[in-house]
Amino acid sequence: MNDILPGEVETWQFLEEQARRIFGTYGFSEIRVPVVEKTELFCRSIGETTDIVEKEMYTFNDKSDNSLTLRPEGTAPVMRSFIQNKLHTKDPVAKLYYMGPMFRYERPQKGRYRQFHQIGAEVIGVEDAKIDAQVLTMLAHYFDAVGIQDVELQLNSLGCPECRPAYRQALTSFLEAHLEALCDDCRRRYQTNPLRVLDCKVPGCKEATAEAPSVLDHLCGGCDDHFGKVQGYLHDVGTPFTINARMVRGLDYYSKTTFEMVTNSLGSQNAVAAGGRYDGLIKDLGGPPLSGIGFAMGVERLALMKGEGRIEPGRPDLFLATLGDDPARYAFGLMTRLQRRGLHAEMDYEGKSLKSQLRRADKLQARRVLIIGGDELARGEAQLRTMETSSQETISLEGIENLLLAGLTPAS
Questions:
Q1: How far is CA 411 from CA 215, 319, 331, in A?
Q2: CB half-sphere exposure, 279, CA atoms < 13 A
Q3: CB burial string 237-263: b at 16+ within 10 A, e below
Q4: In terms of DSSP bridges, do strands 242-243 and 152-157 run parallel, antiparallel, or are they unpaired?
Q5: Dist CA 164 CA 213 (whole Å)
Q6: Mean pLDDT of the 80-89 span
């Protein structure tokens, strides 16, 4: 787990602000859910044979002996809230987004910690392929808006409960003939969760499954038609994508459209955003039989990719430097009034020398410095210095608040 420090957090704020702005234009509203849920929620939604449930969840019993888990992902808690609060009775279509920390006990790696953060979005109540295309287009729009270009949208379809069993059987039969070449994890799960073998990063497993049957060759008519329409709508609106038939995702609730936004700049862990359809999840959790689709982005990875384009910490518009108790008291009141009116102002609080105060203003990269000494205060004047040019001029303290708020330039 890691700290997000000043100088880094500004980039996070930018990424979050852009999500709120862009998702809002597509009709999404923010939802905030607890970081702790009943363990059974994740066992039912994610799947008991997934790596997340088997190996990675932070689970504990509370004082009433209830089994609770720190959320490892955001979709299941949002669906639990949707069902519990009967949001479908307010509007048959729900567009929701969330942001916040998730928790998984896994090997720390580049851009991934055991407490990590996600920005996610979900659409509930629409089966039509147009909503798949809109969600994918919104995701691509977001990456453009935040200035991250080294990404590629990859699509696949995992079929539905009607056609996936036949594919699962075909894949299991193929894997049985190649067990000797698989790693221990894949040999263990090839029967309980065979699709995950296709996602294994071990080179031997990749080579052994290179000729594995493709899920796209086993889609039923309805799934094939849906996937074709998604691609058609994306072509219509100019959202670029490629097909990756080996993409399976690690959660049991996915069906039909699945997708990842991948990059070449983060090593082997190349997915920076991912998601898909989960048409049966809401019913499985005790809600109405509504379809859904969503995605989540890893904020740590987004921040890494932002790289040299990081957002700089805010610079003070004004630093107030004073000499003496009375000027300091006057400056404190002036600074407070300016801050209440929206100006970023700072001052020295400890009565240091003028030279020390100016060094502090320079370190903070303040745009201007207002210097007030005892003689200047008695005359109702101050010195206003522009730091970039080192130019300085005398200004009147009368009406100084409006003067500074008008742009930190003296009136003509």
A1: 72, 19, 21
A2: 18
A3: eebebeebbebbbbbbbbbbbbbbbbb
A4: parallel
A5: 12
A6: 95
Amino acid at 156: N
Distance CA 71, CA 80 (A): 12
Q: Which amino acid is at 150?
A: D
The strand order across the sheet containing 255-262 reads 29-30, 94-103, 115-124, 292-298, 271-277, 255-262, 152-157, 242-243
Structure tokens at 201: 């990063």
Q: What is the pLDDT of residues 205-248, one digit of tens each?
A: 989 999 999 999 999 999 999 999 999 999 999 999 999 998 87
- Say if residues 293 and 281 touch (Cβ distance below 8 Å): no
387-412 pLDDT, tens digit each: 989 899 999 999 999 889 886 544 33
Dihedral sign, Cα of residue 297, residue 192, residue 114, residue 152? negative
Residue 213 makes CB contacts below 8 A (sequence gap 6+) with 167, 170, 171, 174
Residues with Cβ within 8 Å of residue 71, at least 6 apart in sequence: 33, 34, 35, 36, 37, 42, 77, 102, 103
pTM attached to this predicted model: 0.84
Give me the phi and psi of 83, to 5 degrees please. -70, -50
pLDDT digits (tens, 9 = 90+) for 330-369: 999 999 999 999 999 999 999 899 999 999 999 999 999 9
List pLDDT tens digits, range 25-59. 999 999 999 999 999 999 887 776 566 777 789 99
Element (H, E) at 228: helix 221-237
- Non-local CB neighbours of 181 within 8 Å, separated by 6+ positions: 204, 205, 207, 208
Bridge partner residues of 69 (DSSP): 37, 59
The token pair at 107 is 């090997």
What is the layout of strands, in order, in the sheet containing 345-347?
345-347, 318-322, 368-372, 381-386, 391-396
- Is residue 91 packed enough to be buried (19+ CB in 10 Å), middle (13-18) or exposed (0-12)? exposed
Of the candidates 240, 67, 53, the residue with the CA atom closest to the CA atom of residue 137:
240
